[in-house]
Amino acid sequence: MNLSDRRLPRSLQCLHGYTAKQLTHDLIAGLTVGLVALPLAMAFAIASGVSPQAGLYTAVVAGFLISALGGSRTQIGGPTGAFVVIVASIVARFGIAGLALVGIMAGVLLLIMGLTGLGAAVKYIPRPVTIGFTNGIALLIASTQIRDFLGLTTPAVPSEFIARIAVLIRSIGTVHWQSLAVAGASLAIILLWPRVTRRVPGTIVALFATTAAAALLHLPVETIGTRFGGIPQGLPHLSFPTLHAAHILPLLPSAFTVALLAAVESLLSAVVADGMSGDHHNSNVELVAQGVANIASPLFGGIPATGAIARTATNIRSGALTPVAGMVHALTLLAVLLVAAPLARFVPLATLAAVLFVVAYNMGEWREIGTILRLSGTDIAVWLATFSLTVLADLTVAVGVGMALAALLYIYRIAETTTVAPVTREYLRDGQAHILQDKDIPSHVTILRIHGPFLFGTTEKLAEATAHLGQFGDVVILRLRNMTALDATGIHALEQFSDRLHKAGKALLLCGARDQPSQLLSRSDFLKRVGSENVLPNVQDALNRAREIQGDFSGIGHELALELEHRPL
Prior knowledge:
Number of helices: 24
């Protein structure tokens, strides 16, 4: 068996040459992220309508399997905010047994995606759709925590957003000031503690401080113990849930949604990890690991799991080098279950509500809304439909409608790129400045060209073609003469490429953009990133600008003409 085989889990690949120094780094990172995951795992479970230990069991079982079998060096898996809304709706309609069946079905779907090479299919989800349902999920998570944050006394809180807000407004006179004080103190600690030190996360400080206060001062606030009776001490128990075949078809849409969310969230997290660590994950191996983890999690009383972006980033910042850190994170939470579970009954629910408020704000990608609103009306419509349906209907409907609208938009934009016109003398004269054959390209300049529509589903080709920036010159010219259409996903890909070049100490120039891409770029923030002086009308002006940036180099350069051709969905 060749350990360099890309089809193997990264944990097996990393065993070759693994050193004591690497182990030390991984142990420290795993312990740190394990403590960070402790309040999050319980909070996500409670917000999902299940017991807090279900979140811990998920982080232990699924977290260990995702690290042991996954395709990323530093990915951390476990329960996340993406699943809160859909898990809560499944539990409300079908109970815990229905949730277990959804988890197993979603795991099987993820396995199929990974084993058949469909990991790349996730890129066909356009950015307005992902931003729309991320915004919606964040808003829904925050709305579910208002009651515990304020300590309200309410009747049964409805699952529908409008009805829930109405009940909360009618109950506003029942604010419990001690709970609000604990929640406010927790929120202040989480937000202000990084000014003291970033070595110890503020969520951990808030959790320990308020738990100690609730236990020692006997604060009259609702805790995990008063609502759930505490957390059982010991190992998660293997038990096969009672499954009803009659539930398979009704739960199939929910299973598809869970599988889609798990795939999108895990691969997005893996991409973030690649950017921070310099690694390159294997999407299909990662999806196989996600599938195994989601099949195993319900068997131990857990809920759906996926890659967790914030915990993965914490893992990398804490010095993680291999998947061993992720396995240590899971074992840390297992140790908490074995040793400190009785103390969890003192954890105030107001503190966990404050934690989830911060999570909802951080995961919401609220800054992206301004970017979307500056783009075309069709992009705005796709975002608004997805966001509105996520909040007012449910996630399954939102993703389905968002994808349908995006597909129609894709067809429309492709149709708009087809033109029929005579070749005139003016056309030939105007095109002279764009051709490359008669241009002197300096050795410090690399030219890339995008050919065809640069829309969702095709943007990954830019990342693949520019994986090794060290081979490029100090000035990179992106030639857009033959890029016929652009959308929000394409702009985001260009922004990421610009950031990567900037970190590598290289300059980016754009030239020759046609009308639709040029108009969309001018409405976005992209020009602020690269500077309007670095966006040129043709390749000749771009070459002149490149000489201004780095001087006139002698010798004949080279063109790296990479065809990023459109492939039909």
